[in-house]
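Comment thread on ticket #2218

A.B. wrote:
> Attaching the input chain for the structure job we discussed in standup.
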Amino acid sequence: MRNYLVAAVLLLVPGCSRAPSINFLGAFFPGWMFCLMGGIALTLLTRALLIRTGRIDQVGPLAVFYPAVGVIFTFLCWLIFF
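C.D. wrote:
> Ran it. Output below, let me know if you need it in another format.
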């Protein structure tokens, strides 16, 4: 029983580290802000690509599609860079 408690505590310890901050022109910004901007930029790029190839009609409801793609790209940026 004690081994399980120790293992559970050790799994939670890495979550106590500081959030990644990036120095940008002398000010520190949290890393998630840059990932969010990257996700939005990649979503806009995806939209332009869909329009250019004429596949925009094959996409489901746009009010659901674009936020979902934005979230996916944001999380992918976070996983890749942090």
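A.B. wrote:
> Thanks. Noting for the ticket: The first strand starts at residue 21 and ends at 24.
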